[in-house]
Amino acid sequence: MIILGFYQSHDACAALYDDYRCIASVALERVTRIKTDGYRFPAEAVAECLAEAGLKPSDIGAVCFPRMRYPADDVRKSARPFGGLFATGKIDPIAPLRSGRVRDLSEIVDTQAFAGRHGWPAGAETFFYNHHKAHALAVLAHMPADDVLLYTSDGGGDDVFYSARLLRDGRLTDLFGGEADTLSRPVPQRPGDSLGKLYAYVTEALGFRSLRHEGKVLGLAAFGKPVHADRLTALYTVSDDGQIHCALPRWRVRMLVNSLAKSCSREDMAASVQQTLETVTLKALDKLLRRAPVRHLGLSGGVFANVKLTQRIAERFDLDEVFVYPAMSDQGEADGGVLEYLLKRDGIDTWLKHRHRLSTVYRGRDYSADVERVFAAGGAVKRPAADAVEEAASLIAGGGIVGTYLGRMEYGPRALGARSIMAAATDRSINDWLNKRLDRTDFMPFAPVVRAERAADLFKLPPELHYTANFMTVTCDVKPEWRDRIPACVHVDGTARPQLIHREQNPVYYDVLAAYEQKTGIPALINTSFNVHEEPIINKPEEALRALKEGRVDHLLSQQAVWSLA
Q1: Which end of the chain offers a freer environment for a tag, N or C, measured as fewer CB atoms within 10 Å?
Q2: What phi, psi does 319 have (nearest 5°)?
Q3: Angle value at C-alpha 360, between 357 and 362, nearest 5 degrees
Q4: 476-478 and 495-496 strand pairing
Q5: How far apart are CA 30 and CA 41, in angstroms?
Q6: Contact 196/302 with Cβ under 8 angstroms?
């Protein structure tokens, strides 16, 4: 069966599955070119998924809907008094579900009207997924272990801000933050409890945009002192079962953050919120792991885009594996929604049998057949070298900046070789001049990419983090002898956020690293996302060509050739 999942808040996205096989997953922003585009049905992302599959909307057999405010046009007229029509023109479908006035959200959301507008069959099955369960199942689907604690943390979804679930002996149990919490009255978790919201408030207080620039706050934190960490941490308590609660409502948390931010430097405020996030999260996980001792920890939700937090978790607890879902933000909701539908349809025994280790997240539409035509028509020429890999490595060794356009685009916030910018990590000043070329202002160094078998030579990366490091979701300490050899990738605190690459994941990308090391003796390169400031990572070959023409990169690397301007 062809199953469509979608999400339509910020980070809107779509995912298309053939039962348990993911055909495509695409964030709306990559298609529309509007950063964090959303708050509407992601029609363009759905179309991109269908195009990759060679399917039509009429081929869809089931559709997985998020549970969030829907525009009035999508809500049955008979249901509007129950949900309440607000000034925003949107209706909360969970309120009548919680009150018991309806048993299924299809009584609220007009799924037939949805089908008519978007072309899938009126008889397609509909399923409304739970936000945090979708986050959790996206992780679990790629952790084929027998004992797993799943922990999610974000700015909120379905009136929940944290969840914990335990897989043991073939049973998946909600510890908290499950459906019972979403539907209970009163809701046991409040917005003020959310560390994700706290981090967002600090992001805004420092002059950045929440849901977009939290990474800048993380970068600033290493330059400051946590002068207000004790004050912030004191707001939060952790109950014996691992739940986090705040002494203040969210509006008072925001007021306090704004006040504290005025009394110190940006660096000190960033350090304060980072330490608070780490301290409180570690305390919660400590109680959870005492309550449910396991060897494997799966993490998702936007809070776990914080790579330093994941490092702290691995350092604190004795675990066999810590894995962060690569699309940990709400970009992963569409996938998780489909997986939640499959769990309901097939039951836990069948669902668990389909788990597998995640190899890549190259899930976008494949434009490879268009590359040569687009590049050549736009004025780019193939370099005469017979071996594209050797040519790319030589250009990088000579100081060139190479943008990769290799197969299908990545899913999630990280560029992982398909749409990356590669450069030498040996030039300390590159953080200044390359960021200027990309119109970026960042406080983090560039991330390194290294062949997996060489990672242990450069980084203090324990085995339990190797899997998640394939997707650049954790920091680790750089070995002292390498800090001055790859300075462009080392933060002021001596850490880096590496990507480990295996040849079967991306042969061209891997081979460039090998060729570069053979020429220079340096096994790591810079891998930064192929985009300019405030734009999403590129998707189509036309966008790569534009970057070349604008001087963002010096060369483009496709599967068969290196391209430069004539």
Answers
A1: C
A2: -130, 155
A3: 145
A4: antiparallel
A5: 15
A6: yes
Spatial separation of the C-alpha atoms in residues 352 and 179, rounded to whole Å: 20
Q: How far is the CA of 225 from the CAs of 230, 271, 490, in angstroms?
A: 12, 6, 19
Residues in the chain: 566
CA atoms lying within 13 Å on the CB side of residue 67: 29
> CB count, 10 Å around CB of 346?
15
Cα 504 to Cα 166, 398, 419, 450, 501: the distances in Å are: 32, 27, 17, 14, 9
Domains of the chain: 2-128 (3.30.420), 132-325 (3.30.420.40), 368-565 (3.90.870.20)
Residues 392 and 395: their CA atoms lie apart, in Å, by: 5
Cβ atoms of residues 158 and 182 within 8 Å: yes
How far apart are the C-alpha atoms of 465 and 480, rounded to whole Å? 20
User: Is the pTM above the cut of 0.90?
Assistant: yes
Beta-bridge partner residues of 457:
none
Are 496 and 445 in contact, with CB atoms under 8 Å apart?
yes
d(CA 469, CA 203): 26
- Cα(114)–Cα(129) distance, integer angstroms: 16
| For the chain, percent of residues with pLDDT exceeding 70 | 97
For residue 87, is pLDDT > 50? no
Residue 86 has pLDDT above 70, yes or no: no
Mean pLDDT estimate for the chain: 95
pLDDT band at residue 378 under the 50/70/90 scheme: very high
More confident residue, 548 or 99: 548
As beta bridge partners, residue 526 has 423, 448
Distance CA 384, CA 368 (A): 20
DSSP 530: S
Helix (H, G, I), strand (E, B) or coil at 50: helix
Rounded to whole angstroms, the Cα distance separating 337 from 137 reads: 8
Give the other-Cβ count within 10 Å of 264's Cβ: 17
